[in-house]
Amino acid sequence: MATRLGPNQYGKAETHLVRVYRDGDVHSLRDLTVSVALAGDLDEVHLSGDNTNVLPTDTQKNTVYAFAREAPIGAPEAFALRLARHFVTGPIRRARVEVCEVPWARIAVDGDPHPHAFMQASHEQRTAVAVSEAGVDWVLSGLANLVVLKSTGSEFSGFERDRYTTLAETHDRVLATAVAARWRHVRIDGDWDESYAEARRALIEAFASTHSLSLQQTLHAMGTAVLDVRPEVVEVRLSLPNKHHFVVDLSPFGLSNENEVFHADDRPYGLIEGSVEREGAPPAGPAWDPYPLL
Amino acid sequence: MATRLGPNQYGKAETHLVRVYRDGDVHSLRDLTVSVALAGDLDEVHLSGDNTNVLPTDTQKNTVYAFAREAPIGAPEAFALRLARHFVTGPIRRARVEVCEVPWARIAVDGDPHPHAFMQASHEQRTAVAVSEAGVDWVLSGLANLVVLKSTGSEFSGFERDRYTTLAETHDRVLATAVAARWRHVRIDGDWDESYAEARRALIEAFASTHSLSLQQTLHAMGTAVLDVRPEVVEVRLSLPNKHHFVVDLSPFGLSNENEVFHADDRPYGLIEGSVEREGAPPAGPAWDPYPLL
Amino acid sequence: MATRLGPNQYGKAETHLVRVYRDGDVHSLRDLTVSVALAGDLDEVHLSGDNTNVLPTDTQKNTVYAFAREAPIGAPEAFALRLARHFVTGPIRRARVEVCEVPWARIAVDGDPHPHAFMQASHEQRTAVAVSEAGVDWVLSGLANLVVLKSTGSEFSGFERDRYTTLAETHDRVLATAVAARWRHVRIDGDWDESYAEARRALIEAFASTHSLSLQQTLHAMGTAVLDVRPEVVEVRLSLPNKHHFVVDLSPFGLSNENEVFHADDRPYGLIEGSVEREGAPPAGPAWDPYPLL
Amino acid sequence: MATRLGPNQYGKAETHLVRVYRDGDVHSLRDLTVSVALAGDLDEVHLSGDNTNVLPTDTQKNTVYAFAREAPIGAPEAFALRLARHFVTGPIRRARVEVCEVPWARIAVDGDPHPHAFMQASHEQRTAVAVSEAGVDWVLSGLANLVVLKSTGSEFSGFERDRYTTLAETHDRVLATAVAARWRHVRIDGDWDESYAEARRALIEAFASTHSLSLQQTLHAMGTAVLDVRPEVVEVRLSLPNKHHFVVDLSPFGLSNENEVFHADDRPYGLIEGSVEREGAPPAGPAWDPYPLL
After folding, report:
1. A65 interface with B at CB cutoff 8 Å
2. What does the DSSP assignment read for B52-115?
3. How many degrees, rounded to 5, is the angle at CA C105 between CA C114 and CA D194?
4. Which residues of A are catalytically annotated?
5. Fold agreement between A7-134 and A144-286
6. Residue B260 vs residues A18, A197, B171, C66, D97: alpha-carbon distances, Å
7. Choosing from B185, B243, B244, B245, which is the catalytic residue?
8. Nearest-by-CA chain D residue for A63
9. C251 and chain A: CB distance < 8 Å anywhere?
């Protein structure tokens, strides 16, 4: 039987790095989880177990920690990019590095920021992906766990009906989601932090401001808003679980419920996914290749 | 063989309630998960399956939703207490109601707060427990998932050593934990929100301000700080996982690492638990009885 | 303000130990997660940060690993007991050690058991707790994540109704739960593995065989069944989430649904907890003290 | 600014269906979680919120339940395929349906299988994906959460070294992973259950039997083994986290540790992913398109 090796990649996942910077008595803090995936001339390790071309995942972990010491980490995008470029050498032809950062805020004591005490500000994550291959780099920025809700200003009506449809139309519903988004940059020489802050703001404001006729429409508005404000962004992908809030029937208890009391359900949930691209955007190459593969 | 029924309780756990208040166009939002546990004259249901004394857990869920409509929810403590008192009737002699609230913040658009769009501010939880029995009420306030870290100002030395001890003493380490705390009130007629805000502030500031010789010492300082500022609180219990941050050995790479680069480990972790009580505090009764039982 | 230190304990949680035994070419495997909690003369560490009486949690972790090498692990109960007794010395007056074991089975190749390849047989956990204090030992056996379901033979009717009750009575429903159970031994010199196997079998068979009028009744039957078959067991505690399976209304599609198609819901869930004790059982002492404390 | 809608899909995720079949007094049980994703002519819903072409995700959920009643579920692959084909109609051009089944076993009482009491046999999952588009179907079978371990017969040496490499070579290590695998069928008219059972057996036996020089080599052997025994399978993809088991240094305690006592670590972990394809396999079309999109 003739077989061939198909798509493959390997690396160290979820190296959890905490970096403390000491500027005299005043410290600052970074908290990043880094996942590396490498591809290249790896046929032999699969076919015969010859590890000649395999840089150990343990080494990849060491590299993450060493890089965090050798130079300032900078923006997650910059750190991911620096690592990705480093790993592309010899038989390794492509490196994907994903960074996930959680924010910490300085604790205030008697109204003054403490020099070395911090609290985790949120479980929202800032993410970055850099892919390097053949001297070309792709960079995605992103966020996850951004949980948002509109208590009105959302409808769902005029939809397709078939024999299994029982859903009533509504012109006023709660719309809630946990935003996962990534966006692709066409340039890698800008101010990552400013770009991120503005893109994030655009996403959030578009969610809030769009009178929603469907979550797809909101998704499209959110993606378009990022493209509107950030010329260096050429493509936005969003994954929006529709976190259903069901109006509880209180009529058996003689109570009205005009969209006031909701059961927030866990499963099943709608999952609305989509993307908006700028016309004329350069090709995405391997930027969106799935990680993990399955 | 002679056996007897031992401790028992039953109820509906984790009813997830979202309540929208509409003040004209300006909405506000509450997000509470409510767990009920009832005890009383429940021998027959265990022994023979006679459900005469069993108020269905489905009814308890309905009650949570109805109560959220019939009157303002108020503070989590007040809502828990109102529910607990309601359930104690007839054969039900004791009710425990736990409320877990997650905070939402108003989204700002162009700098102005949006009237009906919100984002989840944090995954920190505000908790409340009310236990009612025989006309007496106990109330606990609390919080969970408050993740804090000090990048210096923490030592650990002078400890007991035995033949299995390899740990080096340190006079400068990272101290990080996810605070879970509950505190017991001696009065139930105060301003729950003010009390909560001040107790939380005392916990956080004590964590930040205490030069830590051990996490136990920090725990005690945190509990004492709450008792210092809130006379209505008579007991504070804390559970503090010691989230280990290990200094990475970078010497093989010719790099120093003076508490700058850390590996944040997941497991195992230290678990430091303790409590501080005010002298002369009234008995806690069933307030701290475990829930769940196992 | 006068305060006093209340209940406290500390230790290393969730040390994940895998032990390989090599009997020539044939290996066997144990997979245990161990949590230690110590209490005693620990006032000074809380009050002043004096660690003289504190055996580091790092040492506790080392001890778990070393004990696994110095002698056969034996039953989880025996390993917990050996560790608990070891830690009670000097200022440490009480030790609680919890062991959680997951089972592995030998992989079969061409029908023959492989000498050194294994698969995780289940996510059911066997648990053991040993508490030692002042020369006295308490031992609990237990299990968790035992997910069981009856597709009929379960009713719920004749229950209390109030103004918030809408639930219909039923004489045929699905009953499903994830059993968490612990049981207390009066002797510590028996065959732990045989005792465990028989107690587990009694729990499962009682769940299956009891025509259930309520989950409380099933719980009681399960606990009693253990006491019936194992004289060394004097108390059984069970925590049984009622994992609701709702009959889906298929009538809009012209379909009947006589308990055939169910929606398995996640939350909320009923939580039924209770215990059965043997008359004349010796006191439980600290055996059931909560861990963690909160 | 000119933009265009990019890749998009929507559907109901994680509908949890439990199906009871009653053959007289003897019941059988199926437990499936179904996720649907639809794509097609959905520009308008994104651009203007016109829902004309949108079949509600609520309807998709209803369909899953109704289909489970209208005809026997059959193999997960068959159920996924039946649903996928159903959804492709009018503006919906492509449907992806994923089914995840967990196995239940009959409880034995006094050695006899009980007619209607069951226990969850494992947390291993059998998965199936069907994608239908333009009258063509693709079917993937798979599994997840298959946790396996070899206590010897695994080496890692001869690897690339750079300045960040500190890992020692080893000729005897523990190799452990949680297998996630999917494999693509070239025919859809076979016996799904037999095919699944044999493919699963091939994966497990190959893991056990391969003397491993690297996890990549084991991965390749596992994929090849499936292709060897199942001619209807043309491609196998595997995602294998390297669950590190570190030998604990017991020398400070005067103990040797010849691969006997291990610390099973959680994070970071290696992630080894790859695929094996049969030469001449027909194109995969949309079969491997990522779900979720991000």
Report:
1. yes
2. TT---HHHHHHHHHHHHHHS---SHHHHHHHHHHHH--TTEEEEEEEEEE--EEEEEETTEEEE
3. 80
4. 12, 57, 244
5. yes
6. 8, 27, 15, 32, 48
7. B244
8. D164
9. no
Is the preceding peptide bond at C268 cis, omega within 30 degrees of 0? yes
C22 residue type, one letter: R
Reported ipTM: the value is 0.95
Reading the block at residue B255, the tokens are: 């790099």
- Report yes or no: D55 at the A interface, CB cutoff 8 Å: yes
A252 chain-C contacts, CB cut-off 8 A: 166
Give CA–CA dist A229/A203, Å, rounded: 10
**Which two tokens mark A27?**
């410290």
- Decide if B123 is catalytic: no
Catalytic residues of D: 12, 57, 244
Q: Tokens 């696994």 — which residue?
A: C68
CATH topology of domain B8-134: Urate Oxidase (3.10.270)
How far apart CA D250 and CA B132 sit, in angstroms, is 53
CATH homologous superfamily, domain D140-294: Urate Oxidase; (3.10.270.10)
Is residue C244 flagged as an active site residue?
yes
- Residues in chain C closer than 8 A to B158 (CB atoms): 50-52
Using CB atoms, pick whichever of A3, A166, A277 lies closest to residue D4.
Answer: A277
Pick the CATH number of C143-284 from 3.10.270.10, 1.10.10.10, 1.20.1250.20, 3.30.300.20: 3.10.270.10
Phi, psi of B54 (to 5 degrees): -100, 110
**Domain ranges across chain B:** 8-134, 144-294
Phi, psi of D138 (to 5 degrees): -120, 140
Identity at B65, one-letter amino acid code: Y
Taking contacts as CB-CB distances below 8 angstroms, the residues of chain A near D226 are none
A6·D267 Cβ contact <8 A: no
Contact yes or no for B13/C281 (Cβ under 8 A): no
D 103-162 near B (Cβ less than 8 A):
none
Phi (first) and psi of residue C14, to 5 degrees: 60, 50
Contact at 8 Å (CB) between B93 and B133? yes
Mutate to test the interface with C, among A165, A246, A267, A269 (most CBs of C within 10 A): A267
C-alpha closest to that of B15 among C217, C170, A248: A248
In words, the CATH class of domain A7-134 is alpha beta
| pLDDT tens-digit series, residues C80-95 | 999 999 999 999 999 9
In sequence order, what are the beta bridge partners of A192?
A: none
Q: Is C69 on the interface with D (CB under 8 A)?
A: yes
| Alpha-carbon gap: A194 to the closest alpha carbon of chain B (Å) | 17
Contact D166 B267 (CB under 8 A): no
Query: Looking at the complex, does the CB of residue C267 fall below 8 Å from at least one CB of chain D?
Result: no
Q: How far apart are the first and last CA of chain A?
A: 25
- pLDDT in 10s for each residue of chain B, 294 residues: 699 999 999 999 999 999 999 989 999 999 999 999 999 999 999 999 999 999 999 999 999 999 999 999 999 999 999 999 999 999 999 999 999 999 999 999 999 999 999 999 999 999 999 999 999 999 999 999 999 999 999 999 999 999 999 999 999 999 999 999 999 999 999 999 999 999 999 999 999 999 999 999 999 999 999 999 999 999 999 999 999 999 999 999 999 999 999 999 999 999 999 999 999 999 999 999 999 999
Contact residues, chain A, for D279 at CB < 8 Å: 2-4
CATH of domain A144-286: 3.10.270.10
Instruction: State the CATH architecture for B144-294.
Output: Roll (3.10)
* Cβ within 8 Å of residue A283, ≥6 positions away: none
Q: What is the DSSP code string of C84-112? A: HHHH--TTEEEEEEEEEE--EEEEEETTE
**Nearest residue of chain A to residue D272 (CA atoms):** A10
Residue type, C7: P
**SS3 for A113?**
strand
